[in-house]
Amino acid sequence: MPLLQVHLLAGRPPALKAQLVRELTEVVERVLGSSPERVSVLVTEYAEGHWNVGGEPLRLPEAARDE
């Protein structure tokens, strides 16, 4: 039973996250031969300031934000 974990900055539209989950599931189905019912995808979102790289907080680009 494949389990994928996706970590994202918060703020993307729900429809975009749903598309990501669907497409990741399809890839696992195609590559590993797993049935979609057995593929789990966990999406964890982090508020800006809770994910930092090189001592600086990551920022979600405006184009990727919820509207």
TrEMBL record:
<dbReference type="InterPro" id="IPR014347">
    <property type="entry name" value="Tautomerase/MIF_sf"/>
</dbReference>
<keyword id="KW-0413">Isomerase</keyword>
<dbReference type="Pfam" id="PF01361">
    <property type="entry name" value="Tautomerase"/>
</dbReference>
<protein>
    <recommendedName>
        <fullName>4-oxalocrotonate tautomerase-like domain-containing protein</fullName>
    </recommendedName>
</protein>
<dbReference type="InterPro" id="IPR004370">
    <property type="entry name" value="4-OT-like_dom"/>
</dbReference>
<comment type="similarity">
    <text>Belongs to the 4-oxalocrotonate tautomerase family.</text>
</comment>
<feature type="domain" description="4-oxalocrotonate tautomerase-like">
    <location>
        <begin position="2"/>
        <end position="58"/>
    </location>
</feature>
